[in-house]
């Protein structure tokens, strides 16, 4: 029996014997399901449930590859599942392509693939197709991932910014910025003290909320750019003025400490396991109760509301003293390669 190489070789991407061995020893055992097992040109799926199709794609270049609370594999699955879930879709299937750099340790690859498999199992979504390419040493950065996700929006379900109206209340499912805070802490040697990414699949939480009968108008997951950027995008799309309450926004003490030390604003740091929900005002108390019933929503909070219509949209933060300051889009990124 040929000994498995300790690192990825260029030949692993050449389509020959080593490629086959890599697929059959690493990816297929981790992701095994009937659609994937054929290892043919395309996955053939069972007929889909009734509803509108939702399709999303994403790429992941996070640095470091492993961090407290997650890694590139878990992040790739959760990020794709969450994009579908907050659109109101029930995830049906994922695809995953991995671009490997020559010299990547196969033990690290195994850990990342196993983590992706665990995340997919937790979300109850199969990875039905994939691809692997290898680039020469120095032409990549270990491993990148590219995913796609297919979901179905059930008949009668309608979520979107077109439904947001003045008076809507903005809820967040838990403390913000834990993912971004963890990544930047790792890069500066500050990890520890209970600080870890919030990376998690949100489809179970979304179904729990929507199944309660609460009138939810829109949802988003505040990833790159954080809560402030997501709110700016929503405000622009629905021409509304959004007011966030500084004292109501939950941030873990460890995240606050990292942000203060490095001069970062948690409102602009990514979450990877949190959702923002725009809910009819008279349904907000019930929505908050329902979110808190779920393990991923126990620390949910009401953080603001849609106050008035405003051409072009705007977002402001109201401080404890009642002073309002604008929350604008940043000209760049506070933390690159966050996901």
Radius of gyration: 21 Å
CATH H-level superfamily title of the largest domain:
PurM-like C-terminal domain
Q: Kindly, what is the distance between the CA atoms of the first and last residues, rounded to a whole number of angstroms?
A: 38 Å
Total count of strands:
13
Report the mean per-residue pLDDT as an integer: 96
User: If classified by CATH, what would the architecture of the largest domain be?
Assistant: Alpha-Beta Complex
Description:
- It is a single chain.
- With 339 residues, the chain is α+β, with helices and mostly antiparallel strands.
- The protein has two domains: 144 residues, PurM-like, N-terminal domain (60s Ribosomal Protein L30, Chain: A, 2-Layer Sandwich); 166 residues, PurM-like C-terminal domain (Phosphoribosyl-aminoimidazole Synthetase, Chain A, domain 2, Alpha-Beta Complex).
- The chain has nine helices and 13 strands.
- The strands form three sheets. The chain has a seven-stranded mixed beta sheet. A four-stranded mixed beta sheet has the order 1-6-4-5.
- Strand 2 and strand 3 form a beta hairpin.
- Helix 1 packs parallel to helix 4 and helix 3 packs parallel to helix 4.
- The chain starts with 16 loop residues before the first helix and ends in a 13-residue tail after the last strand.
């Amino acid at each position: 029996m040929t000994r498995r190489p300790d690192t990825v070789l260029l030949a692993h991407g050449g389509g020959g014997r080593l490629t086959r061995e890599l697929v059959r020893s690493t990816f297929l055992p981790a992701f095994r399901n009937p659609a994937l097992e054929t290892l043919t040109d395309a996955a053939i799926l069972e007929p889909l449930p009734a509803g509108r199709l939702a399709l999303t794609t994403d790429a992941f270049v996070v640095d470091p590859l492993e961090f407290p609370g997650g890694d590139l594999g878990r992040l790739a699955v959760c990020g794709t599942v969450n994009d579908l879930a907050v659109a109101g879709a029930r995830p049906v299937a994922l695809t995953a392509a991995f671009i490997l750099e020559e010299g990547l340790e196969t033990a690290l690859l195994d850990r990342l693939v196993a983590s992706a498999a665990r995340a997919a199992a937790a979300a109850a979504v199969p990875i039905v197709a994939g691809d692997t390419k290898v680039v020469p040493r120095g032409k990549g950065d270990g491993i990148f991932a590219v995913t796609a996700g297919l979901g179905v929006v059930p008949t009668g379900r309608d979520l979107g910014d077109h439904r947001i109206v003045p008076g809507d209340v903005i809820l967040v499912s838990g403390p913000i910025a834990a993912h971004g805070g963890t990544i930047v802490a790792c890069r500066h040697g500050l990890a520890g003290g209970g600080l870890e990414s919030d990376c998690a699949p949100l489809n179970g939480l979304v179904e729990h909320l929507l199944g309660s009968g609460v009138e939810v108008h829109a949802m988003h997951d505040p990833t790159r750019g954080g809560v402030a950027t997501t709110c700016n995008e929503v405000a622009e799309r629905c021409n509304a003025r959004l007011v966030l309450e500084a004292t109501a926004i939950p941030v873990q003490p460890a995240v606050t400490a990292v942000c203060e030390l490095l001069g970062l604003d948690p409102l602009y740091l990514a979450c990877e396991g949190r959702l923002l929900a725009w809910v009819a005002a008279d349904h907000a108390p019930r929505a908050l109760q329902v979110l808190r019933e779920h393990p991923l929503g126990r620390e949910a909070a009401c953080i603001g509301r849609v106050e008035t219509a405003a051409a072009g949209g705007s977002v402001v933060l109201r401080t404890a003293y009642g002073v309002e300051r604008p929350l604008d889009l940043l000209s760049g990124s506070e933390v690159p390669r966050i996901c």
